[in-house]
Amino acid sequence: MLAFAQHFIGKAFLFAVIMLFAWHAVHRIYKSLHDFGIHPGPVPWLACYGSAAWVTLLAAIGLLRIG
Question: Which residues contact 61 (CB under 8 A, 6 or more apart)?
Fold first, then answer.
């Protein structure tokens, strides 16, 4: 796995998988708030999508630090 993560294509693949899962998950959470009776406004939107942006940034930094 380390050799895979050290290669450019492996890094790109891992980054894409992590990024897409993070954004998909928070999008589903954000849309599910309405089902629970919470009408999302700017604060839940910022919390959800801000956390996805944070995970994406951490994934990029982590993958760049690997060899």
Answer: none
Give the separation between CA 2 and CA 25, rounded to whole angstroms.
26
pLDDT in tens, 2-12: 999 999 999 99
For the stretch 31-61, pLDDT in tens is: 998 888 888 789 888 999 999 999 999 999 9
Evaluate the CA torsion angle 41, 31, 27, 52 in order and state its sign.
positive
Q: Which residues contact 37 (CB under 8 A, 6 or more apart)?
A: none
